[in-house]
Protein backbone atom coordinates (compact mmCIF):
# COMPACT_ATOMS: atom_id res chain seq x y z
CA UNK A 1 0.00 0.00 0.00
CA UNK A 2 2.80 2.37 0.86
CA UNK A 3 4.50 1.71 -2.52
CA UNK A 4 1.23 2.36 -4.36
CA UNK A 5 0.73 5.57 -2.42
CA UNK A 6 4.25 6.68 -3.22
CA UNK A 7 3.72 5.95 -6.92
CA UNK A 8 0.43 7.82 -6.90
CA UNK A 9 2.12 10.77 -5.23
CA UNK A 10 4.95 10.76 -7.77
CA UNK A 11 2.41 10.53 -10.60
CA UNK A 12 0.43 13.44 -9.19
CA UNK A 13 3.59 15.53 -8.91
CA UNK A 14 4.52 14.73 -12.53
CA UNK A 15 1.04 15.64 -13.77
CA UNK A 16 1.15 18.84 -11.78
CA UNK A 17 4.50 19.63 -13.32
CA UNK A 18 3.11 19.07 -16.82
CA UNK A 19 0.14 21.31 -16.05
CA UNK A 20 2.41 24.04 -14.72
CA UNK A 21 4.63 23.72 -17.80
CA UNK A 22 1.56 24.01 -20.04
CA UNK A 23 0.30 27.03 -18.12
CA UNK A 24 3.70 28.70 -18.30
CA UNK A 25 3.80 28.04 -22.05
CA UNK A 26 0.36 29.62 -22.46
CA UNK A 27 1.32 32.69 -20.43
CA UNK A 28 4.60 32.94 -22.34
CA UNK A 29 2.61 33.15 -25.58
CA UNK A 30 0.37 35.80 -24.05
CA UNK A 31 3.43 37.78 -23.01
CA UNK A 32 4.90 37.56 -26.52
CA UNK A 33 1.58 38.62 -28.03
CA UNK A 34 1.43 41.55 -25.63
CA UNK A 35 4.84 42.73 -26.82
CA UNK A 36 3.78 42.54 -30.46
CA UNK A 37 0.56 44.44 -29.71
CA UNK A 38 2.46 47.12 -27.82
CA UNK A 39 4.83 47.64 -30.73
CA UNK A 40 1.87 47.82 -33.14
CA UNK A 41 0.18 50.32 -30.81
CA UNK A 42 3.38 52.37 -30.72
CA UNK A 43 3.38 52.52 -34.53
CA UNK A 44 -0.23 53.72 -34.52
CA UNK A 45 0.64 56.38 -31.91
CA UNK A 46 3.56 57.60 -34.05
CA UNK A 47 1.44 57.85 -37.20
CA UNK A 48 -1.33 59.52 -35.19
CA UNK A 49 1.19 62.08 -33.93
CA UNK A 50 2.33 62.77 -37.49
CA UNK A 51 -1.30 63.23 -38.48
CA UNK A 52 -1.67 65.86 -35.73
CA UNK A 53 1.50 67.58 -36.95
CA UNK A 54 0.27 67.78 -40.55
CA UNK A 55 -3.40 68.17 -39.71
CA UNK A 56 -4.03 71.23 -41.90
CA UNK A 57 -2.97 69.26 -44.96
CA UNK A 58 -4.76 66.13 -43.73
CA UNK A 59 -8.08 67.89 -43.20
CA UNK A 60 -8.18 70.48 -45.98
CA UNK A 61 -6.59 68.38 -48.73
CA UNK A 62 -7.30 64.75 -47.86
CA UNK A 63 -10.49 64.60 -45.78
CA UNK A 64 -12.28 67.49 -47.48
CA UNK A 65 -10.85 66.68 -50.91
CA UNK A 66 -13.90 64.74 -52.23
CA UNK A 67 -16.09 67.73 -51.25
CA UNK A 68 -14.14 70.10 -53.50
CA UNK A 69 -14.95 70.38 -57.25
CA UNK A 70 -11.18 70.64 -57.84
CA UNK A 71 -10.73 67.07 -56.63
CA UNK A 72 -8.65 64.88 -58.95
CA UNK A 73 -11.54 62.54 -59.76
CA UNK A 74 -13.87 65.34 -60.82
CA UNK A 75 -11.17 66.92 -63.00
CA UNK A 76 -10.54 63.59 -64.73
CA UNK A 77 -14.27 63.15 -65.32
CA UNK A 78 -14.43 66.56 -67.01
CA UNK A 79 -11.47 65.62 -69.21
CA UNK A 80 -13.26 62.44 -70.21
CA UNK A 81 -16.26 64.52 -71.28
CA UNK A 82 -13.96 66.56 -73.52
CA UNK A 83 -12.60 63.38 -75.09
CA UNK A 84 -15.95 61.56 -75.22
CA UNK A 85 -18.74 64.18 -75.55
CA UNK A 86 -21.30 61.37 -75.66
CA UNK A 87 -20.91 61.01 -71.88
CA UNK A 88 -22.94 64.19 -71.47
CA UNK A 89 -22.30 67.39 -69.56
CA UNK A 90 -23.75 65.92 -66.37
CA UNK A 91 -20.74 63.60 -66.16
CA UNK A 92 -18.52 66.64 -65.63
CA UNK A 93 -18.94 67.69 -61.99
CA UNK A 94 -18.15 71.37 -61.39
CA UNK A 95 -19.92 71.97 -58.07
CA UNK A 96 -20.63 69.95 -54.94
CA UNK A 97 -23.70 71.18 -53.12
CA UNK A 98 -24.50 70.56 -49.50
CA UNK A 99 -23.31 72.48 -46.47
CA UNK A 100 -21.24 70.84 -43.74
CA UNK A 101 -21.77 72.10 -40.20
CA UNK A 102 -20.79 71.30 -36.64
CA UNK A 103 -23.62 70.92 -34.11
CA UNK A 104 -21.73 69.93 -30.95
CA UNK A 105 -19.64 71.97 -28.54
CA UNK A 106 -16.66 69.62 -28.78
CA UNK A 107 -17.46 68.51 -32.30
CA UNK A 108 -14.41 69.96 -34.03
CA UNK A 109 -12.10 68.83 -31.23
CA UNK A 110 -13.34 65.23 -31.43
CA UNK A 111 -13.19 65.50 -35.23
CA UNK A 112 -9.48 66.20 -35.08
CA UNK A 113 -8.81 63.40 -32.61
CA UNK A 114 -10.91 60.80 -34.44
CA UNK A 115 -9.54 61.67 -37.88
CA UNK A 116 -5.95 61.53 -36.63
CA UNK A 117 -6.47 58.17 -34.92
CA UNK A 118 -8.17 56.82 -38.03
CA UNK A 119 -5.24 58.02 -40.16
CA UNK A 120 -2.77 56.45 -37.73
CA UNK A 121 -4.56 53.09 -37.98
CA UNK A 122 -4.69 53.18 -41.80
CA UNK A 123 -0.98 53.98 -42.15
CA UNK A 124 -0.14 51.54 -39.37
CA UNK A 125 -1.89 48.57 -41.02
CA UNK A 126 1.28 47.29 -42.80
CA UNK A 127 3.26 47.31 -39.55
CA UNK A 128 0.35 45.70 -37.67
CA UNK A 129 0.34 42.90 -40.26
CA UNK A 130 4.12 42.61 -39.88
CA UNK A 131 3.85 42.19 -36.10
CA UNK A 132 1.06 39.65 -36.60
CA UNK A 133 3.33 37.71 -38.96
CA UNK A 134 6.19 37.78 -36.44
CA UNK A 135 3.86 36.33 -33.80
CA UNK A 136 2.51 33.54 -36.02
CA UNK A 137 5.77 32.68 -37.82
CA UNK A 138 7.43 30.61 -35.02
CA UNK A 139 4.39 28.28 -34.89
CA UNK A 140 4.63 27.44 -38.60
CA UNK A 141 6.63 24.67 -40.22
CA UNK A 142 9.29 25.53 -42.76
CA UNK A 143 7.02 24.56 -45.64
CA UNK A 144 4.21 26.73 -44.24
CA UNK A 145 6.60 29.65 -43.83
CA UNK A 146 7.62 29.41 -47.47
CA UNK A 147 3.97 29.19 -48.54
CA UNK A 148 3.09 32.31 -46.52
CA UNK A 149 6.15 34.27 -47.65
CA UNK A 150 5.15 37.72 -48.87
CA UNK A 151 1.95 37.76 -46.79
CA UNK A 152 2.65 41.17 -45.26
CA UNK A 153 3.67 42.72 -48.59
CA UNK A 154 0.71 41.47 -50.64
CA UNK A 155 -1.84 42.13 -47.88
CA UNK A 156 -0.51 45.68 -47.45
CA UNK A 157 -0.48 46.36 -51.20
CA UNK A 158 -4.04 45.07 -51.64
CA UNK A 159 -5.23 47.16 -48.69
CA UNK A 160 -3.51 50.26 -50.09
CA UNK A 161 -5.01 49.71 -53.56
CA UNK A 162 -8.44 49.25 -51.99
CA UNK A 163 -8.08 52.43 -49.94
CA UNK A 164 -7.01 54.43 -53.00
CA UNK A 165 -9.84 52.98 -55.09
CA UNK A 166 -12.36 53.79 -52.36
CA UNK A 167 -10.99 57.29 -51.86
CA UNK A 168 -10.62 58.34 -55.51
CA UNK A 169 -13.53 56.45 -57.09
CA UNK A 170 -16.23 55.32 -54.66
CA UNK A 171 -16.02 58.19 -52.19
CA UNK A 172 -16.35 61.16 -54.62
CA UNK A 173 -19.09 59.50 -56.67
CA UNK A 174 -21.10 58.72 -53.53
CA UNK A 175 -20.57 62.17 -52.00
CA UNK A 176 -21.56 63.89 -55.23
CA UNK A 177 -24.79 61.90 -55.41
CA UNK A 178 -25.73 62.20 -51.73
CA UNK A 179 -25.00 65.93 -51.46
CA UNK A 180 -27.02 66.69 -54.61
CA UNK A 181 -29.88 64.28 -53.95
CA UNK A 182 -33.11 65.94 -52.86
CA UNK A 183 -36.71 64.79 -52.60
CA UNK A 184 -38.04 68.34 -52.41
CA UNK A 185 -36.63 71.82 -53.16
CA UNK A 186 -37.95 72.91 -49.76
CA UNK A 187 -35.35 70.69 -48.04
CA UNK A 188 -31.78 71.97 -47.91
CA UNK A 189 -28.97 69.45 -47.64
CA UNK A 190 -26.96 70.28 -44.55
CA UNK A 191 -24.68 67.60 -43.12
CA UNK A 192 -22.81 67.34 -39.85
CA UNK A 193 -19.05 66.96 -40.01
CA UNK A 194 -19.33 63.67 -38.10
CA UNK A 195 -21.63 62.28 -40.79
CA UNK A 196 -19.25 63.39 -43.53
CA UNK A 197 -16.17 61.93 -41.83
CA UNK A 198 -18.02 58.68 -41.14
CA UNK A 199 -19.00 58.35 -44.80
CA UNK A 200 -15.47 59.06 -46.07
CA UNK A 201 -13.82 56.66 -43.62
CA UNK A 202 -16.37 53.89 -44.14
CA UNK A 203 -16.17 54.01 -47.92
CA UNK A 204 -12.38 54.26 -47.94
CA UNK A 205 -11.39 51.76 -45.24
CA UNK A 206 -14.26 49.42 -46.10
CA UNK A 207 -13.02 49.16 -49.69
CA UNK A 208 -9.51 48.47 -48.42
CA UNK A 209 -10.83 45.58 -46.34
CA UNK A 210 -12.86 44.20 -49.27
CA UNK A 211 -9.72 44.18 -51.42
CA UNK A 212 -8.19 41.69 -48.98
CA UNK A 213 -10.37 38.97 -50.54
CA UNK A 214 -7.45 37.21 -52.32
CA UNK A 215 -5.52 37.01 -49.05
CA UNK A 216 -8.54 35.51 -47.25
CA UNK A 217 -9.06 32.99 -50.06
CA UNK A 218 -5.34 32.13 -49.95
CA UNK A 219 -5.52 31.32 -46.23
CA UNK A 220 -8.76 29.36 -46.58
CA UNK A 221 -7.31 27.41 -49.51
CA UNK A 222 -4.23 26.44 -47.52
CA UNK A 223 -6.47 24.93 -44.84
CA UNK A 224 -8.61 23.23 -47.48
CA UNK A 225 -11.73 25.20 -46.57
CA UNK A 226 -11.99 26.85 -50.00
CA UNK A 227 -11.44 25.13 -53.35
CA UNK A 228 -11.35 26.50 -56.91
CA UNK A 229 -14.08 24.05 -57.97
CA UNK A 230 -16.42 25.46 -55.33
CA UNK A 231 -15.62 29.05 -56.31
CA UNK A 232 -16.21 28.33 -60.00
CA UNK A 233 -19.50 26.61 -59.24
CA UNK A 234 -20.54 29.56 -57.06
CA UNK A 235 -19.53 32.21 -59.61
CA UNK A 236 -23.13 33.10 -60.49
CA UNK A 237 -23.96 33.65 -56.83
CA UNK A 238 -20.77 35.64 -56.38
CA UNK A 239 -21.81 37.94 -59.23
CA UNK A 240 -25.11 38.68 -57.49
CA UNK A 241 -23.37 39.28 -54.14
CA UNK A 242 -20.79 41.58 -55.76
CA UNK A 243 -23.52 43.62 -57.45
CA UNK A 244 -25.35 43.91 -54.12
CA UNK A 245 -22.15 45.07 -52.41
CA UNK A 246 -21.56 47.60 -55.20
CA UNK A 247 -25.13 48.88 -54.86
CA UNK A 248 -24.75 49.27 -51.09
CA UNK A 249 -21.32 50.89 -51.25
CA UNK A 250 -22.42 53.35 -53.94
CA UNK A 251 -25.92 54.55 -53.02
CA UNK A 252 -26.57 55.95 -56.47
CA UNK A 253 -29.19 54.96 -59.07
CA UNK A 254 -26.56 55.25 -61.81
CA UNK A 255 -25.85 51.80 -63.26
CA UNK A 256 -22.51 52.96 -64.68
CA UNK A 257 -21.25 53.96 -61.23
CA UNK A 258 -22.28 50.62 -59.77
CA UNK A 259 -20.50 48.74 -62.56
CA UNK A 260 -17.35 50.82 -62.05
CA UNK A 261 -17.32 49.68 -58.41
CA UNK A 262 -18.26 46.08 -59.21
CA UNK A 263 -15.63 45.60 -61.95
CA UNK A 264 -12.56 45.40 -59.64
CA UNK A 265 -14.50 43.09 -57.33
CA UNK A 266 -15.06 40.72 -60.26
CA UNK A 267 -11.32 40.85 -60.97
CA UNK A 268 -10.53 40.11 -57.32
CA UNK A 269 -12.87 37.13 -57.36
CA UNK A 270 -11.28 35.69 -60.51
CA UNK A 271 -7.84 36.34 -59.01
CA UNK A 272 -8.93 34.46 -55.89
CA UNK A 273 -9.97 31.48 -58.04
CA UNK A 274 -6.54 31.53 -59.70
CA UNK A 275 -4.80 31.64 -56.31
CA UNK A 276 -6.93 28.81 -54.92
CA UNK A 277 -6.26 26.68 -58.04
CA UNK A 278 -2.53 27.28 -57.74
CA UNK A 279 -2.55 26.16 -54.11
CA UNK A 280 -4.57 23.06 -55.00
CA UNK A 281 -2.10 22.12 -57.76
CA UNK A 282 0.78 22.53 -55.35
CA UNK A 283 -0.94 20.33 -52.77
CA UNK A 284 -1.67 17.65 -55.37
CA UNK A 285 1.94 17.77 -56.53
CA UNK A 286 3.22 17.31 -52.99
CA UNK A 287 0.74 14.51 -52.34
CA UNK A 288 1.67 12.75 -55.58
CA UNK A 289 5.35 13.04 -54.78
CA UNK A 290 4.80 11.59 -51.30
CA UNK A 291 2.65 8.76 -52.64
CA UNK A 292 5.18 7.96 -55.32
CA UNK A 293 7.97 7.86 -52.80
CA UNK A 294 5.99 5.49 -50.57
CA UNK A 295 5.20 3.18 -53.46
CA UNK A 296 8.81 3.07 -54.39
From TrEMBL:
This protein's record includes keyword Isomerase: no
Compartments in which it is found: Cell membrane; Membrane
One Pfam family this sequence matches: TatC
Bilayer topology term: Multi-pass membrane protein
Annotated GO CC locations: TAT protein transport complex
Keyword annotations: Cell membrane, Membrane, Protein transport, Translocation, Transmembrane, Transmembrane helix, Transport
Residues annotated as transmembrane: 37-55, 109-130, 151-175, 195-225, 237-253, 259-277
Keyword Cell membrane: yes
Subcellular location, principal: membrane
GO molecular function, one term: proton motive force dependent protein transmembrane transporter activity
Any one of the GO BP annotations: protein transport by the Tat complex
Domain of life: Bacteria
Function of the protein: Part of the twin-arginine translocation (Tat) system that transports large folded proteins containing a characteristic twin-arginine motif in their signal peptide across membranes.
PANTHER family from the UniProt entry: SEC-INDEPENDENT PROTEIN TRANSLOCASE PROTEIN TATC (PTHR30371), SEC-INDEPENDENT PROTEIN TRANSLOCASE PROTEIN TATC, CHLOROPLASTIC-RELATED (PTHR30371:SF0)
Family per record: Belongs to the TatC family.
NCBIfam families xref list: tatC (TIGR00945)
Subunit record text: Forms a complex with TatA.
Protein name: Sec-independent protein translocase protein TatC
